[in-house]
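Good morning,

Attaching, inline, the backbone tokens for the sequence recovery test we're adding to the shared suite. The designed sequence is right after.
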């Protein structure tokens, strides 16, 4: 698609209320007989969101035109494009909403992290396909849409970034589709994990933020990049005000027909708040929640940071003048929770409460307790509430958290400051006063609240790396070469010794991590060159002060992360190989590979021998030592690669969303006895069902991998309702010992002993059974069968 010119650009003639379409056939007047087209005039002025497909195309065209017009000033381009984009993002106010700002993602637009694995300037092929096939879409709009798609197919940010790969990088990193094909590594495209300074946003409000930006703007030359950035930031805040005005107009329309007194009052309060926020800082809890939610929505951030700290001061002010009570606060938070749920970001949506380093801790704790109670009442898969705790913190937070978890709620997740803060100091190489702000996002990755980013931009299957080694560089699923060059295998021969096999595995992993570190740096570089990410940058430390966007030198700590999967499978595989092949010589490596290739159908006895070998998770030294060895290698080598980039850190995250099941579905049989096309282990936990020596042995094993060499690891634990509730004293002693011995984190699924099996048989009876999958939670009956099987396989204590 060539640059869109006047010959194919839809012009809105506001003064004459006439829409003119300039096509190859000349000027066409779309008169009042086609009333749908008249709605184009109202993109900025009406009080309903864009729903007509023809209007959607018009807005995509305006966005594309603006992108093409502005060259050489990425900050201005982002601001001006966003002035158009928001009209396709926002959703109408629902009948039970107490706040506005619910958004959806346009088919084409600008976002830090978008659906369909993209970032920055993106396009969603699936969404565009639905739009193109909409029967209400006019033929002329279809032609326009086709040209728009042609342009963005060539100019979306991911496409442009991939074009900078050299030939070797293209060969080693061929795919982003970890969920649909076999592979050792896959790239991810997103700028995720941004945890903005919501305390600052609430303290300053929009006018205070404007004043800070304007002050810095006065100190720089009008011809400088910094001046352009500050100007664009102020334009972005203008857009925030425009959105508030839009919703005020929509509320006016709703008030015309609303007859219920309570709902009418809520709508009037919503309007008053929206009129106030562009010009005044929030003074009440309700105003502050609205500001946070709407700002977060416009940024399209998927996490909410230390929200108890952000809201503490306004809540204190409300309480002191008897403006609010706890019941009303929970009502407000409940609406907030439901709106977060409607955004449907189940892998994210983190809210952090508790922990060291908060401002106004007494009232932060009060907010935290309200949020725990809200989570109890609004039982859902998001928001993902996480409680940081430490010795000396108000014990009511931890106690109430356990109560809620015992009711079958996977939240709050628990994070131990006494372990995580010292670990962060070493992992990130930072002082205590920075590490005290460590919080979690996404599926459990650690980041420094509004001080750093650490977007996971790749995944590596450690198990697939080993399987390909055993097959001398051939992927048994596809039959094609995969991994490091074939000539590298010659020095290892036929793996006559265990040491040769281990070294070949290490080389395979290292070969790929080298490229993944380069990819992470390239992704950040390209993001920084493409846009300043205005809303994020305004609330991330140092960006305004430095006059730079978050990914172009503005952020204090630019960190990257690599998601590692299959660590327990690899450890158990090495344990079995060492024992049966090299130590006891009961089987040959050739026999093992043959059995793997047949998925054990040719030798079930051999599979039983593999399964009977010691497994990680049972406090057995030889098995746990192998897990530690695997952990130390991938974590330390990855950390070393960060020194070769411009990033402050590059660290492994030992997490799992559902990638362990999706990747496992395309992974051949493995030497731990696992059959082909079945799930990998979840996070730092043992392979499902492998831990058979009781909960104490399970805890002793998962405590062995060091926490100071990575950027987050998750521990999934499945407890019975009986243990969690009827034996609460024993449970608390058990958990206290776990924390004291170095436990960093715990994520619970609390179910009855037969609940999961019954839910698979009678899903209609278990609609509200929520389980912790890994980095996210979900209603068990909504999960695909392979994920249900993996959760069912986990040992229930």
């Amino acid at each position: 698609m060539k640059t869109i010119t006047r010959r194919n650009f839809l012009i809105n003639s506001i003064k004459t209320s006439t829409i003119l379409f300039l096509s190859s056939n000349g000027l066409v007047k779309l008169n009042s007989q086609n009333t749908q087209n008249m709605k184009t005039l109202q993109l900025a002025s009406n009080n309903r969101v864009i729903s007509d497909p023809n209007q959607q195309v018009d807005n995509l065209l305006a966005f594309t035109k603006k992108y093409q017009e502005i060259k050489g000033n990425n900050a201005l381009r982002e601001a001006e494009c966003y002035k158009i984009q928001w009209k396709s993002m926002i959703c109408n106010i629902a009948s039970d909403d107490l706040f506005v700002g619910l958004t959806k993602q346009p088919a084409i637009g600008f976002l830090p992290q978008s659906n369909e694995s993209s970032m920055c300037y993106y396009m969603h092929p699936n969404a565009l396909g639905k739009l193109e096939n909409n029967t209400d879409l006019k033929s002329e709009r279809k032609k326009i849409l086709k040209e728009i798609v042609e342009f963005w197919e060539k100019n979306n940010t991911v496409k442009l970034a991939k074009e900078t790969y050299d030939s070797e990088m293209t060969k080693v990193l061929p795919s982003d589709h970890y969920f649909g094909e076999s592979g050792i590594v896959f790239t991810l495209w997103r700028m995720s994990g941004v945890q903005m300074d919501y305390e600052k946003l609430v303290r300053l409000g929009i006018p205070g933020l404007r004043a800070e930006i304007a002050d810095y703007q006065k100190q720089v030359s009008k011809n400088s990049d910094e001046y352009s950035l500050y100007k664009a930031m102020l334009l972005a805040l203008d857009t925030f005000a425009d959105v508030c005005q839009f919703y005020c107009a929509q509320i006016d329309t709703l008030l015309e027909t609303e007859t219920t007194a309570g709902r009418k009052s809520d709508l009037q309060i919503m309007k008053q708040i929206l009129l106030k926020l562009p010009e005044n800082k929030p003074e009440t809890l309700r105003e502050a929640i609205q500001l946070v939610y709407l700002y977060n929505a416009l940024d399209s951030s998927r996490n909410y940071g230390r929200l108890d700290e952000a809201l503490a001061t306004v809540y204190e002010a409300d309480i002191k003048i008897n403006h609010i009570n706890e019941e009303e606060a929970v009502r407000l938070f409940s609406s907030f929770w439901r709106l977060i749920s409607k955004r449907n970001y189940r892998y994210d949506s983190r809210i952090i409460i508790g922990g060291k380093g908060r401002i106004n801790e007494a009232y932060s704790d009060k907010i935290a307790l309200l949020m725990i109670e809200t989570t109890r009442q609004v039982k859902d898969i998001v928001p993902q509430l996480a409680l940081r705790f430490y010795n000396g913190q108000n014990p009511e937070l931890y106690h109430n958290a356990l109560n809620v978890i015992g009711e079958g709620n996977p939240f709050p997740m628990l994070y131990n400051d006494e372990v995580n803060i010292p670990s962060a100091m070493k992992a990130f190489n930072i002082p205590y006063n920075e590490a005290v702000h460590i919080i979690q996002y996404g599926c459990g990755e650690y980041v420094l609240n509004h001080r750093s980013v650490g977007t996971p931009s790749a995944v590596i299957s450690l198990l697939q790396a080993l399987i390909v080694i055993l097959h001398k560089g051939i992927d048994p699923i596809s039959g094609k070469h995969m991994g490091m060059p074939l000539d590298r295998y010659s020095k290892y021969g036929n793996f006559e010794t265990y040491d040769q096999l281990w070294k070949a595995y290490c080389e395979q992993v290292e070969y790929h991590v080298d490229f993944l570190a380069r990819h992470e740096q390239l992704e950040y570089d390209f993001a920084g060159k493409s846009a300043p990410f205005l809303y994020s940058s305004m609330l991330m430390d140092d960006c305004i002060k430095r006059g730079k966007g978050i990914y172009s030198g503005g952020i204090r700590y630019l960190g990257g992360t690599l998601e590692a999967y299959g660590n327990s499978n690899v450890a158990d595989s090495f344990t079995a190989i060492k024992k049966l092949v090299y130590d006891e010589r009961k089987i040959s490596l050739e026999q093992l590979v043959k059995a793997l290739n047949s998925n054990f159908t040719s030798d079930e006895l051999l599979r039983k021998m593999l399964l009977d070998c010691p497994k990680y998770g049972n406090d057995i030294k030889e098995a746990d030592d192998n897990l530690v060895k695997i952990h130390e290698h991938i974590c330390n080598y990855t950390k070393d690669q960060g020194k070769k980039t411009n990033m402050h850190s590059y660290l492994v995250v030992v997490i799992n969303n559902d990638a362990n099941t999706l990747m496992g579905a395309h992974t051949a049989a493995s030497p731990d006895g696992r059959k082909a096309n079945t799930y990998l282990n979840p996070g730092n936990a043992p392979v499902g069902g492998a831990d058979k020596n009781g909960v104490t042995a399970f805890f002793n094993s998962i405590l062995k991998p060091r926490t100071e060499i990575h950027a987050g690891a998750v521990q999934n634990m499945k407890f019975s309702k009986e243990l969690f509730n009827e034996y609460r004293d024993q449970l608390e002693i058990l958990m206290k010992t776990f924390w004291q011995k170095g436990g960093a984190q715990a994520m619970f699924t609390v179910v009855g002993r037969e609940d999961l099996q019954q839910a698979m048989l009678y899903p209609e009876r278990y609609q509200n059974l929520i389980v912790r999958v890994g980095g996210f939670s979900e209603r068990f009956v909504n999960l695909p069968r392979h994920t249900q099987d993996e959760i069912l396989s986990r040992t229930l204590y």
